[in-house]
Amino acid sequence: MLGFVATPAWLGLSAQSGGASAQGLLKPRGPRHRGRIDIAETEGELRVLIVHYRYFVSGGPERYLFNVKRLLEERGHEVVIFSVAYRQNQQSEWAPYFIAPIAGDDEVYFDQHTWTPRTALRALKALFYSPEAHHSLLRLVRDSRPDIALVLQYHRKMSPSVLTALRRGGVPIVARLSDFGMVCPAATLTRCSKPCFECVGKLPLASVRHGCVKGSRFVSSVELLATVYHRGRRFFDLVDAFVAPTTFLQDMMVRGGWPRERIRVIPTPVASSPIDACVARDAFVYLGRLSPEKGVSTLIDAYALLVREWGDQAPALALLGAAERSYGVQLGQRVVRLGLEDRVIFAGMQDQDGVDYWLSCALASIVPSICIDNLPNSMLESLAAGVPVIVSDHPTFREALAGYDAGALVPPGDAHALARAMGEILSDPERATAAGNAARRLAEERFSEEVHVTALLHLFEELESARPHDLS
Length: 472
Prior knowledge:
With 472 residues, this protein is α/β, with parallel strands linked by helices. 38% of the residues lie in helices and 12% in strands. The protein contains 15 helices and 14 strands. The protein has helices at 60-74, 117-127, 131-144, 161-168, 205-210, 217-232, 247-255, 296-310, 325-337, 352-360, 377-384, 395-401, 415-427, 429-446, 449-465, and strands at residues 47-51, 78-82, 148-151, 173-176, 190-191, 194-195, 241-244, 263-265, 283-287, 316-320, 344-348, 362-367, 389-392, 407-410. The protein has a 6-stranded parallel β-sheet with strand order 2-1-3-4-7-8, with helices on both faces. Strands 11-10-9-12-13-14 form a 6-stranded parallel β-sheet, sandwiched between helices. A two-stranded antiparallel ribbon has the order 5-6. The radius of gyration is 23 Å and the shape is globular. It starts with 46 loop residues before the first strand and ends in a 7-residue tail after the last helix. The relative contact order is 0.12.
């Protein structure tokens, strides 16, 4: 175990400012605070505080946020939100508590930031420890008096100060993991298009040598310093329970040093789909963020091979999702170079109606990730819609599809294998129909919303019941 690491002076932290180490917070929780909001408490209902660094849909974690919020509210529970104040956010009564973004209120992603000395300092605080996040969240805790906190993503935007604020406020903490960031600085367990476990269970010095974070040794070095700081201050010991969507992620956490009993496996849920299974399918669809680790370039290359073989009989390829600026330009240039500009549709971000429309058109949904994805919503929504899935042969996907012939597994990064799998779906309609039926059964039997929310509430109530209550 790493020893205590002193707080960097340039962060401007002190014990009074919320910079105390976790050692000082690891003690029995006190009674519930009485806040300024007078909310009647009904036995059996929970007030759940969800912490996440975006309050608009930009990817899978946000889809999960809004889905679980809906599921909890449908069952009579109240949801409180803490996030970053981006212009794109959905409206929330809790927005006055949101913290300011690192750069402009419309500069969400790293490559969008306008870098100034002030922005750089805010980014370092958001990575190491943010007093603003600590104080704002603690104020929200004291005003709203939540029973439990569900912490989603906060790294590099809010810092682990959200954990110290929740513990200071006496709130049990459930942290849901949606990537491998706890054991891999790049959060992908992938390097040079191949699985990499070099940093799991170790100080991630290798990530600096390889420049794993943002392709930069400097950024990777800063990330390493933050890791040393966070581990030394034992911030993650403040989490009462982690939730992992797959046993593979649970295994990686155990390999990284966390006790298995602190990590509950609760698969990501998916709603039953309104899409008619008999709708004509005439497109291949990709749903998700357009970024290098998602294998979109491989998909375009595979589609070019398919068109070469099938000619005008090849269906369109629709890419649903937003791209980082430079990568989006690269994808567009690749499509033009391959002569596919009349066949590849860049459909952009879609609301749920748009996603449903495109899935209703899909012969198959392609998930060509180079990185080891956990359990992406794109795959789950496709299964629920009765759409066969062609996915990279990662352990997480093998685990998800086990026992159901709902599509095909192909080696990640192999355009020829992906093209063959797409061709097989196209050439065998009966097989495609059977795979679509199996996909829908899989979604209903393994990934239903009812199964997920029941397991989550059981965990919430288990932790909340162990906390002292204010009986005054």
